[in-house]
Design brief:
Ribosome hibernation promoting factor; Double Stranded RNA Binding Domain; alpha+beta; ribosomal small subunit binding
Length: about 110
């Protein structure tokens, strides 16, 4: 998976880059072929919750997006990673539910009884 991390109005340190890589790398549990992920970390000094983390993840057939605001950048990354993981988990469950709906298989069960 290719992860692109950009910062707006802040300096990206190796620590925050490694932290984001670790959080986004957890998505490999759900999808084998994640195309790429774009992470934008912003510092907005005029707002109360001044740190923003935006993540866009492209997988075959779908695009996931999440955004989180917090006073601490690490907390914002945690929040956005949790939101994204929930979206991916929900999407994966929806795909599995559709695969298990086989009208022909249900008709065969009814005919047997």
């Amino acid at each position: 998976m290719q992860i692109t991390i950009t910062g707006q109005h802040l300096d990206l340190t190796d620590a925050i880059k490694n932290y984001v890589d670790g959080k986004i790398g957890r998505l490999d549990r759900y999808f084998d072929h994640v195309i790429n992920a774009q992470v934008v970390l912003k510092h907005l000094p005029h707002e109360k919750l001044s740190n923003v983390a935006d993540i866009t993840v492209n997988v075959p057939g779908h695009v996931f997006y999440a955004e989180a605001h917090d006073a601490d950048m690490y907390a914002a990354v945690d929040l956005v990673a949790d939101k994204l993981e929930a979206q991916v988990h929900s999407y994966k469950e929806k795909l599995q539910d559709r695969r298990n709906d086989h009208p022909a298989g249900l008709a065969a069960i009814v005919d047997v009884d």
